[in-house]
Amino acid sequence: MINTLAVEIPYWGQSIFRVVGGLVAVLLPAGGIVYLFLFKMMSFMQSRLGPMEAGPYGSMQLLAEVGKWLQKEDIQPDNADKTIFKMAPVVVLLSTFLLIVVVPFGPEAFFTDLDAGVFYFLAVGSVSVLGILMAGWSSANKYSLLGGLRAAGQLIAYELPMVLATLGVVIQAGSMNLQTIVVAQNTGEIFGWGGLGNPFILTQGVGFLIFMIAVQAELTQPPFDMPIAESELVSGYMTEYSGFRFLMFFIAEFATAGVFAFIASVMFLGGWGVPFDWFGWSNLDDVDWWMNIVGPLILTTKMFGLVLVIMWVRFSSPRFREDQLQTFAWKFLIPLSLANVAVTAILKVVF
């Protein structure tokens, strides 16, 4: 995007532009997710209206909630490791901002274009586990410690099927670059016809399903909310947090849902693009400049569609037992994802 501007922007200006863009790309969708799904969709599913007082139809309720949490006292347990206790929510939220770095929003609308973008997001996505463990251990609370240990076991178990689910996409696209994956889907053809491109959800449907299940587990949302489990662990690793630090965990939860949905849209739904045949484009260099404006809107629409599915499952599913959760990952998802990789590799060689 920066290269298309008529004026030369210094490096410090580009850095500010990227920081502001990153804040908008993470926080704005997170706010939309909270309002649309947590405040409204869940309310309608339970035959109630949800927040209605703050702003039109309760649209300002999120700002009221943020203001409330900013005014609350920041309490720390006497026996807590104060330094690690304070760092934990920062680590969890920072991992979300680092994830958005590799998401392409248009032909030139991206923060960075890494050749190993898939590897990067899989690696950075694991950083949040460290933050959760830090929160559980440093709180000097047995419920927090149990929640942190549950989270570590769960996230390790479900990261493997997530990695294997993305491997099928990488094999089919022949690249780990997310921009290349977008182009491969929108320049692809189905039986010689390019009117729909070739979104990988059609050929990697099993991988898409596994990826979305793993995302649900990574977010520690029902039916995979054992690390929090209010009826058992109060609030798990967040039990001792209050005020702004609790708010950071809250923001990270919904912001991460949006970022993972962005990544799933890029890898399985064609990302920011539309089938290139519609406009006679043959490659990325032919794409018109206006896709840098329309592309983010297309990608955001797909993201909200996937978050709708994530939240629907969250609001309507009972919690797994710990043994069921681990068994589902190790005895079902991982063998299924390995089979998907094997079939994809065979078909790639044959065709």
Describe what you observe in this structure.
The chain has one domain (76-350). α2 packs across α11 (243-268), α3 (82-99) runs antiparallel to α5 and α9 runs antiparallel to α11. It is globular. The longest helix is centred in the N-terminal third of the chain and has 35 residues, at 11-45. Mean pLDDT is 88; it is low at 1-6. The protein has helices at residues 11-45, 61-71, 82-99, 117-124, 127-138, 142-173, 178-187, 200-203, 205-218, 230-233, 243-268, 291-316, 322-350. 65% of the residues lie in helices and 0% in strands. It is mainly alpha-helical and 351 residues long.
List keywords for this structure.
351 residues; mainly alpha; 13 helices; disordered N terminus
How do the helices and strands line up, and which of them pair or pack?
Elements lengths: L10 H35 L15 H11 L10 H18 L17 H8 L2 H12 L3 H32 L4 H10 L12 H4 L1 H14 L11 H4 L9 H26 L22 H26 L5 H29 L1
Give a quick precis of the structure.
The protein has 351 residues and is mostly helical. The protein has helices spanning 11-45, 61-71, 82-99, 117-124, 127-138, 142-173, 178-187, 200-203, 205-218, 230-233, 243-268, 291-316, 322-350. It is built from 13 helices and no strands.
